[in-house]
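pasting for ref
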Amino acid sequence: MTSQAPLTTSRPAAAPLGRAAATAATVWSVVFGVFHFYWALGGSFGLGDGALVKAGLTGGMLAYDLVVAVLCFVGAWVAHELGKAPAARPLLPRWMFLTMAWTAAVALVARGGFGVVDDVLRSTEVLANGLSGMAVQDVYGEPHPSTYTMWSMRIVDGFFVLGGLAFGTALRGHLRHARKGC
């Protein structure tokens, strides 16, 4: 009987913290992707109950939600791969894969962090129009949004930061593992 080599080779996993962060980033990406599909279909949970949400989805927002959902699922694949040792023959060139991972980490932390700071400055009236230059009316479509709307957006901003930190930690673990020559 002749033994044949396996068609695929298994790659050892990265360090435990990197694997855990990669799993968290994968879950984050899938959850956010599902929410964007849900919002594209007209759902509003997590967006608040303000005038802009009640006005309904525009064509531009539908396209936006669908594109972001697809990007989230690509991000889930990237995050999943970060939890593994670098492949001998990766699906993408290493520079492209790492660019995607860095972009996710930096963009998510920047988007969420800016949103948090903008909201804190506006809410505390340190800057009436926040960093963005937008008054409450401009952001929420009404001058006195409900507590549910305000906290929905704050949670979304925090969720962005959490996703960015998960991607960054997974990327750090992946790069450390690659540097060790595993």
